[in-house]
Amino acid sequence: MDIIHSVAALRERLQREPNNVFVPTMGNLHRGHIELINIAKPRAACTVVSIFVNRLQFGPKEDFDRYPRTFEADCAKLRDAGVDVVFAPDEREIYPEPQTFVVEPSDLQHVLDGAVRPGHFRGVATVVLKLFNMVSPHSAIFGKKDYQQCLVLTNMARQLSLPIEIILAETVRATDGLALSSRNAYLAVDERKEAPRLYQLLSKARDAIAAGSRGYQAIELDVMAELAHHGWKPDHIAVRRQSDLKEPQGGDDKLVVLAAARLGKTRLIDNVEVTL
Predict the structure, then answer these.
(1) Percentage of the chain surpassing pLDDT 70?
(2) In the chain, which residues fall in CATH 3.30.1300.10?
């Protein structure tokens, strides 16, 4: 496994490969990341994983400085997973000058998670496009836990005619249903016991919709009330169309129930899809 820190060295290394598949990460890797790598490996001669904590996607009061950085442990996991190239640039390598050219996503960036985290999806799209230009993959793998992010990046690749297939992988969960996330490490012991409630309530909402309920607003309010009753601070619970995250209309049969809520100081997101 080659660990590379500069764009020039990365491009030189990848010239030896007929093709590559790319898994972007911010490090602090867990089993969900390894599953993305397992999906990636059969798709190309070379598997590239990046580790970069991207300042542009963090708000001024968010956790950029305390985001877990576990580089040595991450590299050990990637080596065991059979990754070929780890790209681990520092901030000066990705942003050698102020990033005045940015990717401005559609109105999708302003709803749900984007309404709570203004500028977040602009920062995500900008760094991912830069990484795509550096790695030049033929495909890239992203997890569906970040559902809105997946839509932003899929739309970006399509509308900018990028020669990259965006592959979306199912959310990997702990045995109690909690979606795996690097931020789960922030949870205190009692919070970790409470955290699976988010998925349990989303699953209950999904089952109600699948059984014929079309009172989407009532479903959303019920989940928010139940979370609040158990000490959560919900940002949103939303039933939306899978294709564009707009409110469902009559005849829409592919839906997703999305959630973002704070448990203590930890903000958790999750979603479940439902096909009518």
Answers:
(1) 100
(2) 182-275
Looking at the DSSP bridge assignments, the partners of residue 169 are: 143
Q: What is the mean pLDDT of residues 168-189?
A: 97
Structure tokens at 97: 């000058």
In the residue annotation, 33 being an active-site residue is answered as yes
CA 138/CA 45 separation, integer angstroms: 11
Residues sharing a CB contact under 8 Å with residue 103, sequence separation 6 or more, in sequence order: 122, 125, 126, 129, 156
- Closest alpha carbon to 271 in 219, 212, 201: 201
Q: May I ask the CATH class of domain 182-275?
A: alpha beta
Domain with CATH 3.40.50.620 in the chain: 2-169
Q: Which CATH architecture best describes the domain 2-169? A: 3-Layer(aba) Sandwich (3.40)
pTM comes to 0.95
Give me the catalytic one of 5, 30, 33, 110: 33
